[in-house]
Amino acid sequence: MESFEIENITREVQSAGSFVNQLLSETGKTIVGQEQMMQRLLIGLLAEGHILLEGLPGLAKTLAIKTLSKAVQAQYHRIQFTPDLLPADIIGTMIYNQQKGEFTISKGPIFAHFILADEINRAPAKVQAALLEAMQERQVTIGGHTYKLEEPFLVLATQNPIEQEGTYPLPEAQVDRFMLKVIVSYPQPEDEIEIMRRNLYQKNFGQVEPVINTNDILKARETVKKIYIDPKIEQYILDLVLATRKPGRFGLERLNNLIAYGASPRAGIFLGKAARALAFLEGRGYVLPDDIRELGLDVLRHRIGLTYEAEAEEITRENIIEELFNTVEVP
To answer: Which of 272, 279, 178 is nearest to 220 (CA)?
Structure first.
């Protein structure tokens, strides 16, 4: 692509992304610190990817998602996942109308723009299967009828990494549908004191005004798709994904006995899409290798399986991904 074309895309990106700072400023009224989490939520929104947030209770995971939905003026539904949850509790069901003598559709909470699947790993497999269709196909089936979900449609799921009693491991097929798995950590001390003060003294704490609407998001998505990815960066993405499957090809023979299975083709697709969204947030019409390195951990960490040997040696997915990035040649 010619340089003047990239410059034109950059100008379009800067024009279409003029709302970004205003949006972050508005959400910052409620969310203190956690800049990375908010950035990742925006990347998912712009790149049409679902987000899995993992962190201890009280780290503003639920609040962040609710705040973002208010600022975007989008319809938001929170679903608390529990062991007794049924698929009909999510997607809806058929109800018999005695007056009309016919069945009518009662739509469930899945019909919204933002779906917060709170503690997603507490629901059984049949509920996960119902959610899977919505995540992948952007549609649900009720009583033999298929209903399209309105765009933008984003599933933002949370799970607690500590308390595993009464939980169900998410199926690998479903985990792979999440574009990013973001680990949410404790805030910095200076941020935590500000959180305390706002909750204790601000009467209007948590009041967020709409900055943009869903149509603005859909238009921004179209601009994101135009952002240029150089063929060398495409090859870099592919090499990273291939290195998770056949590390020996990249001089990482020692990882052969540590990786049970590597990343799927979705990893490369999502890494490219997420990198474009990150470039959009930074006002660029092109993707840099640093964008790939910035997002690689969140895209790959839930797509690599560890062997028993790796677990015995206390080697984590993060350790393996870091070694991949240190070894695979950067364009």
So the answer is: 279
Residue 80, φ and ψ in degrees, nearest 5: -85, 115
Pull the structure tokens for residue 193.
């004191």
Q: Which residue segments constitute the domains of the chain, with CATH numbers given?
A: 20-202 (3.40.50.300), 228-327 (1.10.8.80)
pLDDT 10s digits, 237-267? 999 999 999 998 888 888 889 999 999 999 9
pLDDT of residue 204: 64
| pLDDT over 80 (residue 294) | yes
Asked if 263 and 241 count as a contact pair (C-beta separation under 8 A), the reply is: yes
* Contact (CB, 8 A) for 91 and 49: no
